[in-house]
Amino acid sequence: MASLSVPPAPADPRRDAIDLYRAFRGFGCDSTTVISILAHRAAPQRALIQHEYAAIFRQHLYHRLASELSGNNKKAMLLWILDPASRDAEILHQALYGDVITDMRAVTEVVCSRTPSQLQIMKQAYHARFGCHLENHVAERTSGDHQRLLLAYLRWPRYEGPEVVDPAAAARDARELYRAGERRLGTDERAFIRVFSERSWAHMASVAHAYQHIYDRSLEKVIKIMDKMYHGFMDITSFLMPSHLSFFLFF
User: Fold this and answer.
1) pTM of the entire predicted model
2) Which CATH code for domain 84-155?
3) Which residues contact 173 (CB under 8 A, 6 or more apart)?
4) 3-state secondary structure of 54
5) Pairs from 61-70 (Cβ < 8 Å, separation ≥ 24)
6) Strand stretches in the chain, DSSP E
7) How many other CB atoms are found less than 10 A from the CB of residue 110?
8) GO CC annotations (predicted)?
9) Fold of the domain built from segment(s) 13-80
10) C-alpha dihedral sign at 108, 220, 197, 116
11) Which of 12, 174, 224, 249 is buried deepest, with most CB atoms within 10 A?
């Protein structure tokens, strides 16, 4: 399959819509042409192509792709032409209901790697697309501490703007995580859930720094021993590394 990339020069959405329509005509679909067009268009361009296609041919491009493509090409293109929030909503629904067993890794990766504002838009897209609140489906298809982490992350309105982090507060959270994890036999997952779901990413970056400074051990290594909650907390801590938080210059 062609790689997904942005075109070097502005494309003509009307021309693209017509070329896609021609690729659908005849015996079988010219999937190579379809992919070569859509895979090299940025999100705003794909939105314009869909608008032009509907205006010219009186049908939704999404539905036409669903009927013409198959296999992995179909799955990739149907996700690719969606806006980011709708794409997340579709991935979550497939992960929750696509198979007999819920794909907890996919659900956790999407939910725990999005900002609060992205989560709000995603939840709206999910409700519009599937007629149910995302929290209700998560509660129905998950259980235990993993469920508590996901629901807390979906519900708690964490701050995401610029802030001056209180080092003392970050150190207190670091000590609480130590008492809930390394210091005791067995992990108090609820303490980890509370801190990770209620604190901003900037604050959590400071917590990770404080943990390293106080205990000479990275918070990431501590989380790796937490089998039940590993993926959830690791998806969050991946955004606490310097490459993701270079704009938070607190320490």
Assistant:
1) 0.79
2) 1.10.220.10
3) 195, 199, 203, 207, 210
4) helix
5) 61/17, 61/20, 64/20, 64/24, 65/34, 68/24, 68/29, 68/31, 68/34, 69/29, 69/31, 69/34
6) none
7) 20
8) cytoplasm; plasma membrane
9) Annexin V; domain 1 (1.10.220)
10) negative
11) 174
The per-residue pLDDT for range 160-198, each reduced to its tens digit, is: 878 889 999 999 999 999 999 888 877 888 898 899 889
- Locate 33 and state its tokens: 């042409």
Fold of 167-237: Annexin V; domain 1 (1.10.220)
The closest alpha carbon to 200, from 231, 243, 169, 234, belongs to: 169
Other beta carbons within 10 angstroms of residue 22's beta carbon come to 11
pLDDT band for 201, please (50, 70, 90 cuts): confident
Instruction: Give the closest residue to 15 by CA, choosing from 44, 40, 48.
Output: 48
Tell me if domain 13-80 and domain 84-155 are identical in fold.
Answer: yes
Which residue do the tokens 């207190």 mark? 172
Contacts of 186 (CB under 8 A, 6+ apart): none
